[in-house]
Design goal:
D-Maltodextrin-Binding Protein, domain 2, six-stranded mixed β-sheet, five-stranded mixed β-sheet, 15 helices, 15% strand, globular
């Protein structure tokens, strides 16, 4: 039995009839077919949506058409900040839930936003799954919300795109840089001015000089927003994994399904991390080609400077203290996250597509 199968089959015990009683959108049709509505804030061509499309195709094949998925892209069904709640009130059955929107609903999930913890996306994605299995405090948030984790979606390491170079963290001082989440705290620690804005506004804001750079984006995101061919300087600041999103499903709905359908969902979910990395690599190659064609300069910040930045920012301890005050055993969640990162880092040979581009390689 795979890890995903164990996770999904052992989650919660509920009566199947409760699903239709709760008026969820995907009660089985007379022929036993389930049509699941998936809400996402990602575009149809993003690596995250491509990963989910592969999952849906696999589930439909494994269930002989018994489970199908209808996609609602780019917040066309609900806003990103409503995604989780939408799976509970019947507007959706499956949802992409971003960590940046989860501080109130899935507080412990935000541990994966902590900067300077890992620069390996595969390790981060595996840690998201293992924390769900191994840490009760982390898992309890999902159970309270009535959702189950299916799998994480790909997101590469945090990069900073700039109009002017910044060889070290202190060179960011005084610059207005688009940012979000805990990365903004890191920027404040070196005197930068983080600016909140959607990724779709970055291109025009850079052109107009409203901001001097952007972060909270990975290399695979750049083509989507027209930034791969318009960014003169792209630097890895050492922040590493900085956010993530996950696919969740309504718990009662999942438990109402026939066991063979649940097994099919678990089997497809077990393949999603690998599929996601493939899709992210493909878009990373496209971004790298556009960056090279535009003459962009790629660089990394010195490790010693990054370590000093991490110590100065103190973001991890701040995260622990903030949630400990709310009754969470956040220290244990962070300790387990770091333990898992250490274990998975020793096993993984994956490298973010930025590094291949930096070295002049393509996968």
């Amino acid at each position: 039995m795979t890890r995903a199968t164990q996770r999904l089959r052992g989650a919660v015990a509920v009566v199947a009839a409760a699903v239709c009683a709760a008026a969820l959108s995907s009660c089985a049709a007379d022929d036993g077919t389930y049509v699941l509505h998936y809400t996402t804030y990602s575009s149809q061509t993003s690596d995250q949506s491509l990963t989910m499309q592969r999952w849906a195709e696999e589930v439909e094949e494994l269930t002989d058409g018994g489970v199908q998925v209808n996609f609602h892209y780019s917040e066309s069904l609900v806003g990103a900040d409503e995604s989780l709640q939408a799976t509970l009130d019947g507007r959706a059955d499956l949802a992409q839930v971003g960590s940046l929107y989860s501080a109130s609903d899935l507080s412990m999930f935000t541990v994966i936003e902590l900067p300077f913890e890992t620069n390996n996306p595969q390790v981060q994605m595996t840690a998201i799954e293992r924390l769900y299995e191994e840490n009760d405090t982390y898992r309890d948030d999902f159970d309270r919300q009535g959702v189950q984790l299916l799998f994480p979606l790909p997101l590469g390491i945090n990069l900073i795109g700039l109009q002017e170079p910044a060889p070290t963290p202190t060179d960011l001082a005084g610059r207005s840089i688009r940012s979000g989440g805990l990365t903004s705290e890191a920027l404040l620690a070196v005197g930068a001015n983080p600016v909140a804005m959607t990724a779709t506004d970055v291109y025009e804001s850079m052109e107009r000089g409203v901001i001097g750079g952007y972060t909270s984006l990975a290399i695979a995101n750049l083509p989507t927003f027209g930034l791969a061919s318009t960014t003169p300087y792209l630097v890895d600041p050492g922040i590493g994994a900085y956010a993530s999103s996950i696919v969740v499903i309504n718990s009662e709905l999942l438990e109402s399904m026939p066991s063979e359908y649940r097994d099919a969902i678990a089997e497809a979910s077990a393949n999603a991390v690998g599929n996601g990395l493939e899709e992210m690599d493909t878009l990373g190659i496209q971004a790298c080609t556009e960056l090279r064609d535009s003459g962009a300069q790629l660089a990394t910040m010195p490790p010693a400077d990054v370590e000093a930045w991490k110590d100065r920012a103190g973001i991890a301890q701040g995260w622990v203290d903030r949630y400990a005050e709310r009754g969470y055993d956040a220290e244990r969640v962070l300790a387990d996250y770091r333990r898992i990162i250490g274990e998975e880092s020793a096993r993984s040979t994956y490298a973010d597509p930025f590094y291949a581009c930096l070295e002049g390689e393509n996968r």
